[in-house]
């Protein structure tokens, strides 16, 4: 059962929630699965790699603690995950949902190469060709989600799964915060670099109507992060010098010089970031607009932390890979057009502290 693109999606989602609730089965994990190891954990619960005893199928089981998870929120995450899993850039689902004594759980496909976070080298990022592959696939997933009237609300490297080491196949996962467009949300405790300014600057008693612009902002920050191995700022508020510098540049355009942390990018690609990271939400995106820039050079070839010239042979190799992989780009565009016509913690805190504690890169 899939959500419609039109307004009927809300009613259909409610129907899915009701049917899933009625069919939620009680089970003992050890009766059906052999537990191999833990894939991840967080405040929500944990994810286990298991083997289905009868079929021998490797499966990832996401288990959410009943003590800290409302049944409706669990059902919402499962139903949304199932509804969007038909898209090739969304994590696959097995249609298995259950509860144990202490957890709610569901089954999804295993990403054999972990997540995008695991391959980011602090201060370096990942190769530009891999960034572009991720950008193509994640933007397609977001476009699909947004056309269904849904907003992910948690775009970050940990929620992008890898199915090979070169990012030729990645998938968006973790729909625990996903809500319908227009849903009123409150600011969460603490902020992260991916949080858009309109949400970051909400008062504690204020609410914000969820919009796809929140995902577009996070997508822009994600691209910066995986291209460089740094965050552009710690928080999108007036207390962050680097965000204020960027905000002033956005608002005043050519009247100000390019902020130091953005000089690492080719001038032709800066408009892409300015669109995704527009201060005014209505001026952002959409994320699929990355297609316009995919064949351009993104990073300055001879730029380093000190502004000195460096060996650009690795960059040139990457650019050759872009040419060699024209079939990848063309195939993606054809597939995307076909889709339109037919109508994914502790690690984050460690990552954040490691990348933001050293500001020397910002001083060029």
UniProtKB/TrEMBL annotation:
InterPro entries referenced in this protein's UniProt entry, alphabetically: Kinase-like_dom_sf, Prot_kinase_dom, Protein_kinase_ATP_BS, Ser/Thr_kinase_AS
**Pfam families named among the record's database cross-references:** Pkinase (PF00069)
Instruction: State the UniProt keywords alphabetically.
Output: ATP-binding, Kinase, Nucleotide-binding, Serine/threonine-protein kinase, Transferase
Q: Does the keyword Glycosyltransferase apply?
A: no
The segment(s) forming the Protein kinase domain are 33-296
Q: SMART domains from the xrefs? A: S_TKc (SM00220)
Q: Where is the signal peptide?
A: none
State the Gene Ontology terms under molecular function: ATP binding; protein serine/threonine kinase activity
Binding-site positions, ATP: 62
User: Where does the source fall among the domains of life?
Assistant: Eukaryota
Family that this chain belongs to: Belongs to the protein kinase superfamily.
> Under what name is this protein listed?
Protein kinase domain-containing protein
Gene expressing this chain: LOC102365082
């Amino acid at each position: 059962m899939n959500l419609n693109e039109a307004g009927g999606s809300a009613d259909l989602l409610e129907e899915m929630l009701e049917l899933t609730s009625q069919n939620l089965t009680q089970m003992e994990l050890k009766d059906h699965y052999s537990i191999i190891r833990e894939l991840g954990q967080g405040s929500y619960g944990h994810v286990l790699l298991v083997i289905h005893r009868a079929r021998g199928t490797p499966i990832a089981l996401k288990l959410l603690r009943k003590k800290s998870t409302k049944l409706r929120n669990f059902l919402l995450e499962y139903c949304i995950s199932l509804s969007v899993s038909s898209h090739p850039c969304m994590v696959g689902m097995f249609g298995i949902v259950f509860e144990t004594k202490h957890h709610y759980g569901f089954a999804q496909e295993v990403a054999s190469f972990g997540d995008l976070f695991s391959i980011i080298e602090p201060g370096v990022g990942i190769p530009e060709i891999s960034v572009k592959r991720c950008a193509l696939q994640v933007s397609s997933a977001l476009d699909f989600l947004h056309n269904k009237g849904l907003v992910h609300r948690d775009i970050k490297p940990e929620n992008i799964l890898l199915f090979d080491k070169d990012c030729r196949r990645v998938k968006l996962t973790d729909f625990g915060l996903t809500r319908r467009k227009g849903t009123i949300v409150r600011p969460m405790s603490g902020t992260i670099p991916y949080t858009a300014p309109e949400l970051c600057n909400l008062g504690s008693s204020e609410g914000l109507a969820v919009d796809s612009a929140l995902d577009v902002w996070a997508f822009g920050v994600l691209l910066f992060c995986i291209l460089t191995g740094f965050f552009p700022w710690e928080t999108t508020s007036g207390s962050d010098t680097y965000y204020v510098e960027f905000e002033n540049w956005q608002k005043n355009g050519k009247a100000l010089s390019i902020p130091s942390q953005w000089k690492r990018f080719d001038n032709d690609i800066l408009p892409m970031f300015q669109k995704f990271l527009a201060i005014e939400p209505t001026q952002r995106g959409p994320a699929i607009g990355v297609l316009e820039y995919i064949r351009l050079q993104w990073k300055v070839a001879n730029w380093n932390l000190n502004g000195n010239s460096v060996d650009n042979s690795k960059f040139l190799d990457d650019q050759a890979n872009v040419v060699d992989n024209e079939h990848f780009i063309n195939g993606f565009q054809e597939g995307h057009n076909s889709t339109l016509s037919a109508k994914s913690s502790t690690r984050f805190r460690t990552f954040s502290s490691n990348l933001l504690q050293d500001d020397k890169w910002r001083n060029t």
